[in-house]
Fold:
Amino acid sequence: MTSPDLIYTLLGAGALLAAVLPRLLAGVPLSLPLVFLVCGVILQLLQLPMPELDPVSDRAWVEHVTEICVVTSLMGAGLALNRPFGWRNWRATWRQLGVTMPLTMAAVGFLAWGVLGWAPASALLVAAVLAPTDPVLASEVRVGAPTDSEHDEDEVRFTLTSEAGLNDGLAFPFVLAAVALAAAAGGRVTGGGIAHWALVDLLYKCAVGVAAGLAVGALLGWLFFRAEWRAMRLSEHREGFVAIGATFLAYGVTELLHGYGFVAVFVTACRIRAAERAHGFHMVLHDFVEQVERLLTAALLFLLGVFVAQGGLGPLTWQGALVGLLLLFVIRPLAGWVAQLRTPAGPRERLVIAFFGIRGIGSLFYLAHALGSPGFDVPARQLWAVVTFTVLASVVLHGVTATPVISRLDRLRRRKARSGRAGTDPGEDEVAGERL
Structure:
């Protein structure tokens, strides 16, 4: 039985580490999620009285905790983006959503059906769960704190941040399709079922997510920056916790309207950002959200490490591990490279964008959510083993490579921007605008 005193100790130590580690790990090829993952494994192996973790029996708990972590990170990602929204400005993002994500989903689904021998419903589920990249674990390759410039985001950070902000919500229709397919008699697809999915699960819920996000974002942008009463103009008071209020308001309203709350939260954040791009209140909001996100991420990755050390990967087969590794090393890089052709990114930048398809907390949420419905032919623990292994491999692979790769790109950009200049340092906008 876990001691309450041990829990308090771990919570306190974890919070302090989450505050200190980002500065200690600066420039080191280690990420905060990777450190906490390893800590969870080590403490469990030391035979400390850790809680027994079972995502199957504790499915609802896992779903809601991961849900909170994802929506918080979506708000932070949207608030950080400086680039004005538009078809041309965001065309690399649309390529990731319209090309990389479908290709990834198709390839993973085919492997799950052909290599793992899973029925179509389970194959589609694992494809949908593993298709989106993650805004939670991508801090090293994500846009940093908000600035007052619209042009200081390099193509790599912007594309990966905006992709992660939107594709989490866009995976939902395909998760629901897998749930509906599993529930259908004999797994048969009907015309009525396809029409309902296309009109309701895809079009209606996505449209509601976007519309609700724009509406809530516009309302909050007015309240933050333009309300006539000073007491109501929240930017004057610089209270960062209102970012959490904005997050839950956008998410809750959209879910009540049966739309996709993940989409709404990210759109809300972008709309708030657009209301007054140069205001310092964005930094206050972003910093508070980032601190909450860091605490949640540290706790969840620690628990994931404990779960792995307790035998969570026991049901994993070599075929399941192969699917996860092929996704990270072959499928995502190839699909991402194809999608980024004829975008502003240079060859090196396209390679980095394609490689850093980070899988993480969003995948855990989607799986927990889907397994609340019956009908899947694959045992839940086997599904958890495949998804957990893929997330684990991504945390290790991308956690070790992100810092040196992104630092290398930054050095090359700065060196290129300095070439030909007579003793003057280039501005951040000029550096970010260089293509590699």
